[in-house]
Amino acid sequence: MYEFIEGEIVERSPAHLVVKAGSIAYLLHVSVNTFSNLGTSETAKLYLHHVVREDAQLLFGFANKQEREVFRLLISVSGVGANTARLILSSMTPAEVSTSILSGNVVALQNVKGIGAKSAQRIIVDLRDKVGKASERDDLFHPQDNTVREEALSALVALGFPRKTVEKSLAKVIQGEEQSVEEVVKGALKLM
């Protein structure tokens, strides 16, 4: 229903922002990641997700479309509500969440307050295919330098490795720190 809001930040905390757009101010629930990404800027463009409940209508704001997409995937899991998804995104970056799901890392998800073993396993089982398809579709969950990633992918596929296997290995190897193509290829080869 709502795509984004752009305006002046008139109030801020790690859990919410009040953004004035025109002559109306909106309360947006945000993750710590979004709050950190905004820094001290006085204006912002935030992507929105509107939640309608029996007792409330809530707006959740995200610094980018990738975080909003991960949020939407998380709330599609039975037993994971909007506040739980926001808590997960406050504890982990969207890339870390998707990497944990793709690699089946239950422990990483369990480290989030309020997520037990069963919830973590349900998230992984329900979202593994969806996250895999999304990352194949548009590299949504890999905000790292795509040139290095694409060169490593091309090199490994040229060596005869299946594309899906290579992509899974690269997701584990590329963890945000800057690496050369050679380092990424060597790391991926060790995992295959």
Low-confidence stretches: 138-145
Q: What is the CATH architecture assignment of the largest domain? A: Orthogonal Bundle
Largest sheet: 5 strands, mixed, barrel
> Spatial order of the strands in the main sheet?
1-2-3-5-4
Strand and helix layout:
Layout: E1 4-12, E2 16-21, E3 24-29, H1 32-38, E4 43-52, E5 57-62, H2 65-75, H3 82-91, H4 94-103, H5 106-110, H6 117-138, H7 146-158, H8 163-173, H9 181-191
Parallel strand pairs: 3-5
Antiparallel strand pairs: 1-2, 1-4, 2-3, 4-5
Helix pairs in contact: 2-3, 4-6, 7-8, 7-9, 8-9
List key phrases describing it.
single chain, 192 residues, alpha+beta, OB fold (Dihydrolipoamide Acetyltransferase, E2P), DNA polymerase, domain 1, Helicase, Ruva Protein, domain 3, 3 domains, five-stranded mixed β-barrel, 9 helices, globular
Characterise this structure:
The protein is 52% helix and 19% strand. It has 192 residues and is α+β, with helices and mostly antiparallel strands. It folds into 3 domains: 59 residues, Nucleic acid-binding proteins (OB fold (Dihydrolipoamide Acetyltransferase, E2P)), CATH 2.40.50.140; 74 residues, DNA polymerase, domain 1 (Orthogonal Bundle), CATH 1.10.150; 46 residues, Helicase, Ruva Protein, domain 3, CATH 1.10.8. The chain has a 5-stranded mixed barrel with strand order 1-2-3-5-4. About 4% of the residues have low confidence.
